[in-house]
Amino acid sequence: MLFSRFNKSREVVLICHLSTFISSVIAYYITCANPVLDSGG
Amino acid sequence: MFIEQPSRWLRWLYPSAIWRMDPTEKAVYLTFDDGPIPESTPWLLDTLDKYNVKATFFMVGDNVRKYPHLFEDIRKRGHRLGNHTFNHIGGLLMSSRRYLRNANKADHLIGTNLFRPPRGWMRNRQYIRLRRHYTIIMWDLVTRDYSKNLTPEEVLNNVKRYARNGSIITFHDSLRSIDKLKVILPDCLEWLRDQGYEFKVFDEHLQHSRKLK
User: Do B3 and A36 touch (CB under 8 A)?
Assistant: First the structure.
């Protein structure tokens, strides 16, 4: 229902963005590797 | 630009860690991570002495074990001591228990209430447990003196561009950075002094801490 107003390609793009964001958050918490926060040593 | 000066939302990851000191105070806090090592530490100490500057050294416990005379030298010259874990480990794939044990092992040699996680990376649980025992010092400015992609002049420009009142400035006491520091650290200290910055170290009573049991 939520996506009924979107055409198929927009749904795909939205899902890709969401999954990328969620996997990034999960990856951060698994690895603790934050490329933006890095003192270098 | 994101790496040199962490943005506000990144600082919210560890809200009770110290990222910057008093922004109304015209002072900076120099920190050197990863030492002590014979290739770098003696030169750094002599240079800091020459400019009558005190700094904070976040040391790796295993290096302290290997070079106790350098550790003593840092202490005797009046610099502040900090814990940087025993084996320079990050939170990466390391259980919180092992991580804390490693920090505690370094603390037995260094004896300090200041802690900086290697690379600034720690899990939330590690952060929560560490802050019970240590004052966690992060940074307001990382110079990227370790980077192969930056020239010494670019490292100096990072300091000139991002230093501000209360900045905690991160350099490294390591093989990766010493060649650059030999070129720019004197200029850096002179420039900061010319701008009116006082060089300070963290107060002993910055925050109450208890030793890990």
Answer: yes
Q: Are strands B168-172 and B27-33 parallel, antiparallel or unpaired?
A: parallel
pLDDT (tens digit per residue) in B166-203: 999 999 999 999 999 999 999 999 999 999 999 999 98
In a domain, B8, yes or no: no
**B12 within domain boundaries:** no
Partners of residue B136 on adjacent β-strands:
B115
Contact B142 A39 (CB under 8 A): yes
Answer yes or no: is the ipTM higher than 0.90. no
What's this model's pTM, rounded to 2 decimal places? Answer: 0.85
Distance (Å) from the C-alpha of residue B150 to the closest C-alpha of chain A?
Answer: 13
Q: Please check whether residue B168 is in contact with residue B18, taking contact to mean a CB–CB distance below 8 angstroms.
A: yes
Domain that holds residue B136: 18-199
In a 13 Å sphere around the CA of B115, the CA atoms on its Cβ side amount to: 36
Contacts of A38 in chain B (CB under 8 A): 3, 119-121, 142
Number of domains in chain B: 1
Q: Is residue B42 domain-resident?
A: yes
